[in-house]
Design goal:
- Helices cover 28% and strands 17% of the residues.
- With 282 residues, the chain is α/β, with parallel strands linked by helices.
- Strand 4, helix 2 and strand 5 form a beta-alpha-beta unit.
- The longest helix has 20 residues.
- Bound molecules: flavin mononucleotide (FMN).
- Flavin mononucleotide (FMN) binds next to strand 4.
């Protein structure tokens, strides 16, 4: 008699065999200090949460341009890459598997993180939900971001590729591309924040281009089964939500399916803010 899979039964994720189906969700902890270098406190945190399971790391910025939260870790220099090794070692010693979540905040940032330069986005559309942002100089209103030029977007893709390489050097088992919660990649996907007229904007196919180019760049470093993508079709966080969200996210899910990635990580939006542009079906 075969038994049905349950929470503590093994699971194959591509070539990885996970001893159970318990996964730690990516959770920003903001414990890396101003240099954004992982540390012993973080190693302890991840080790405490490892019992032969999969962990997705906290969101980790792929470049200085991607910064938008205080004290969150990075994966764009040698010191950060080296410091992550202590964490991946601790997780592996405990029998765990850990993916690094790759992050670029885009417009969900502030000029005080960038030496006075405006944060960047798909288009010059600011977060307008009455919230403020915590910055090194206190809480401030959001600013209208600078729209990335076409050449700038190509450079962003390269930042993701390099971060994926560093993740490998740091001993991670895979990477999750953070394209949810109103951060840069989500800002390109959604009509609300993407009003571009170049090949990265306008129609749906163009709006998906940046994410797909990032997936392809990351796949030059990692096999497809070691790459996941996170989306949040229903999310209101960071002032997101576009009327064509069903069409947009069905299309992107179909596109992502062709890459045979390890997994698609979909937030339902109910716990994290639902945009109310559609009906919740229970
Ligand atoms: C404090 C906090 C930090 C979070 N940090 C991240 C993050 O770094 N990356 C991410 O994709 N989601 C992040 N999330 C969202 C969680 O991964 C999770 O999806 C959310 O809490 C909703 O829970 P649920 O998915 O079980 O409904 C965070 C949530 C909280 C409360």
């Amino acid at each position: 008699m075969t038994s049905s899979p349950h929470l503590l039964s093994p699971f194959s994720l591509g070539d990885l065999t996970l001893e159970n189906r318990v996964v730690l969700a990516p959770l920003t902890r903001a414990r890396s200090g101003v240099d954004r270098i992982p540390n012993e406190l973080m190693a302890e945190y991840y080790a405490q949460r490892t019992t032969d399971n999969l962990l997705i790391s906290e969101a980790t910025v792929v470049s200085p341009q991607g910064i938008g939260w205080q004290d969150t870790p990075g994966i764009y220099n040698d010191a950060q890459t080296e410091a992550w090794k202590a964490i991946t070692n601790r997780v592996h010693e405990a029998g765990g598997t850990i993916f690094l979540q790759l992050w670029h905040c885009g417009r969900a940032s502030h000029s005080s993180f960038h030496g006075g330069e405006l944060p960047v986005s798909a288009s010059a559309v600011k977060i307008d939900n009455g919230d403020q942002i915590h910055t090194p100089t206190g809480k401030h209103d959001y600013e209208t971001p600078r729209a990335l030029s076409t050449e700038d977007v190509v450079a962003v893709v390269e930042d993701y590729r390099m971060a994926a390489e560093r993740a490998k050097a740091a001993g991670f088992d895979g990477v999750e591309i953070h394209s949810a919660n109103g951060y840069l990649l989500d800002q390109f996907l959604q009509f609300k924040t993407n009003q571009r007229t170049d090949r990265y904007g306008g129609n749906l196919e163009n709006r998906c281009r940046l994410l797909l180019e990032v997936v392809e760049a990351v796949q030059t470093v990692w096999p497809a089964s070691r790459v996941g993508v996170r989306l949040s079709p229903n999310g209101a966080f960071n002032d997101m939500g576009s009327p064509d969200y069903r069409e947009t996210f069905l299309h992107i899910a179909q596109q992502l399916d062709t890459y045979k990635l390890g997994y698609l990580h979909v937030m339902d939006g109910l716990a994290f803010g639902f945009h109310d542009l559609g009906r919740v079906i229970n």
